[in-house]
Amino acid sequence: MFRNLCGSKTYKNIVVLTTFWDQLASEQEGLRREEQLESMFFKDLVEGGALFMRHDRTIKKIRIEGKVLEDTAAGSVHREEVEKIIAKYKQEVVELKAEIEALKQGNISLRKELEEERAMIKEKGDLKKGLEEQRQDRERLKGKAVKDKEDREKWQSEQERAWADKLDYQAKEHEEVFKKLQMELEEAQKVMARRDSEIISPPPPYEAEYSAQDQGAGYSRGVFQFAHTGDYPPYLKSIPKKHQTSPFDIFDFGSFAETTAMLFVNPDLLTKLRKLAPDWNTTGTMQDLVSRTSSCSARRAALNVGHREDWYTDEVFAQQQFTGTNPTTIKVAPKKWVESFKKVAVAQRRGDVVRVLEGATENVYIQDYSDFRDLMGVDPREEFMTEGRYGCSSVALFHLEAEGKLHPLAITLDYVGTMEESVTIFNRRTTSKSPRNQADDWPWRYAKMCAQVSDWMRHEVAIHLVNTHLVEEVIIVAAHRTFDPTHIIFKLLEPHWTTTLSLNKSARETLVPKIINRMTGFTPEQTVAFLNASYNEFDWTGLYVPNDLHKRGFPNTAEELDGLKFVTAVLKEAYPGGDAQVTSDSSLLAFCQEVRSFNGGRLSSFPASLQTLDELIDFVTMCIHTASPQHTAVNYLQQYYQTFVPNKPSALYSALPKSLEELNYLGEVDLLLALPIHQPRDWLFMAQVPYLLSFEVPDDNTILHYATTTSDVKAGEYGVPEVIRRAAKKLKEDLEDFIDVVENNSRQLDDQKTPYVVLDPSKTAISILI
After folding, report:
1. What is the C-alpha to C-alpha distance for residues 509 and 513, in angstroms, rounded to an integer?
2. Do 643 and 637 touch, CB atoms closer than 8 A?
3. Where are the domains of the chain?
4. Which of 75, 271, 349, 639 could be cross-linked to 69 through a Cys-Cys bond (beta carbons 3.0 to 4.6 Å apart)?
5. What is 226-252+310-747's CATH number?
């Protein structure tokens, strides 16, 4: 071995040291063994010049003579070295103390300089901010002037086109009349006779006793005027006094007062408010947040999803897509999305997910928020962030299992143009029966939180505010501008307008600019763009219940709608002339034009005209549906699902992971940091606003109460047309039967911990009350 390692020429440098000489029976035995080593085992080394030596020192001084280490020869050397080291370190300590003292004096001077510099920077920043605000104001005024000019020019162009179209239409109509007169004189005489008869008799859409008002008077056109700004869809410029409702008559006084206080006072200054938000110093786990929901005041302890031990599970998350605050956007996943997720699953080696997607065919559903950046007009890769809050545009994929359970499969945290550049995570549990632990799966729980943040934005701004509140306001204003108050359509719709105008005014002046803009991860400009884009994309006929269900891949149940049957009964009697009478109703045509026109409601998806009785029935049903059951469904569950902030926050408070590796590294503390625990005002807004907006519907404002009072024999004394009163009697019976249907449907849900009875007619609001 030595030869292989060092070569034979180095043998002369080797020392063979023998030991244990003090343990031999005799010296002769040692000599014999030493000779044996030299002649046999180390012969080559000896011949090469290696030196044999003996280690015959003993442990006599320590063990036999009893000397301590310092008294031995080795100990004296060791002691001398130790003393040198001690002296060296003492000197270094003295020098370090001197350096520390010098640094301390220097820090005092440096701190003073930094404070002076910080004050100077703040002063410069304030000046810069003031100059920037002035510049922005100038730019805003300049932009407004340009926009006003463009609006005026556009309005003039619209008017010119409208008049041109009208003249063309009239010319063609007259030409057709003259041709018919020339070809069939007898038929023309019959037509004239029929027209004379219609002029003499009161038109059927009006009750005879209420038809005296001159249609040329303009109804409420002068009072009800549309306002147009860049921030909101068209709305009522000024609410007439008799239609105004005080906020104290709309909201619960206590909740309204607390919310108002949050706008102007730091919650830390109000002990009562501060206690409603968690404290970071006492919040170390998610369970701490769950526990505090039970320790709040009795009013706040009203049931919410946080009282459920399983609130964070896939089952509760999935159930909210059907029976939560936003059950209106989940749909069958388009093939392109299924293929995109499948491709990512292959890349992540998730063959189990691929097999589920390949076997699911049409049972894959999606919540798609990927269009946020397009709607807001921002770059596909731009980060959603404002004032330390983060937003996202998630995409969530679900599998509707054979047993009827909806199970989340995958979530893209924030879609940035392509799946390859976005972060996508797949559920470890590919089926609802998987026994895997969900409580500690923090990356997946974080992904579900992202999906909820995206849904919060879609639900609150588009589904709730735009699709019910703001769309209904356009209908209200247009109706006042075009219908006689005694017109049967006006009589049908008016009960469903209570409170809406004043409530919407509060939303524009306070809710959006001062609350929602402080709650989301989107800038005010992005929110305004999203709001207006949602209005422009509103599909009036596409959102008729049967059409919407079909488009989203659900069964059509149009024949079962009680509201449709009620409207049909009224209008078939009010329009005995059928389609021809509908077409000849000038008020209906004026109404449609008012809703669609640039100077009116600007709702381009609204029908240009109503040509048939069925179209009229669908239109009226849609108006009532929007104001009553639709708004009830998307509004009154906010308290249950959103007052417990971790279930559905409006924003995240830390940046989203940029990669799957980063996402998989997240733990419980990261989820806590993503919540506004350090921002008590934001936490209180998230918890308080849903409570404020979900105050229980008063008994005298339900759809069932409307049917009951309208069908009463005395209803006619208050201006209710007889045709509506008769139909309301049947509506009342249908609604009472429907209560059992709602309760039975709720009992059939897999989730029996949270009944779904929000559409109970005894709880469904008659209008957009709050």
Report:
1. 7
2. no
3. 2-58, 80-201, 226-252+310-747
4. 75
5. 1.20.245.10
